[in-house]
Amino acid sequence: MACVFCRIASGEIPAEIVAKDEHAVAFLDVTPLADGHTMVVPRTHVATVEEMAPSDADALFRMVRRLAGPVRTAAGATGSTIGINNGAATGQTIPHVHVHIVPRKADDGGGSVHTIFQAGTRRPIAEVGKDIRKALG
Fold it and tell me: How far apart are CA 117 and CA 48, in angstroms?
């Protein structure tokens, strides 16, 4: 088993586990963006969200929901950024789905998800919507 998240989830590699159940494990990030930066991973090895079984996705997001408030409270934060890098183009460096819960405070220097993209010309939204509906089948 080469995947570091699979090894953490199985207990092979020690981590600061904050919650776990039969479907998911949550632990503190070893290179945190803020105190309390928590990673939530499914126990099933899967690289991207769209590859997840619906039941695994449900369980993963139940744990994210369960932890969001306690992580924020424990860190003394007033909000949190919850995000997933889904695929290599997004900066995902470990090909195992993982959700970041990053506690946030006003003026902490971090931005919103909107700050990671450059302004520019985009396709008309009706055209994009049509293409998404087509891809859905």
Answer: 21
pTM above 0.70, yes or no: yes
Domain count within the chain: 1
Q: For the beta carbon of residue 57, count every other beta carbon within 10 angstroms.
A: 17
Q: In this structure, are strands 79-83 and 24-28 parallel, antiparallel, or unpaired? A: unpaired
Closest C-alpha among 107, 100, 97, 94 to residue 81: 100
Residue 119, class by beta-carbon neighbours within 10 Å (0-12 exposed, 13-18 middle, 19+ buried)? Answer: exposed
Which of 90, 38, 85, 41 has the alpha carbon at shortest distance from 61?
41
- Residue 34 structural domain: 4-136
Quick check: 43 and 64 in contact, CB under 8 A?
no
Which listed residue (37, 96, 98, 100) is catalytic?
98
Per-residue pLDDT, averaged over 87-93, amounts to: 95
CATH number of the domain that 30 lies in? 3.30.428.10
| 37 among known catalytic residues | no
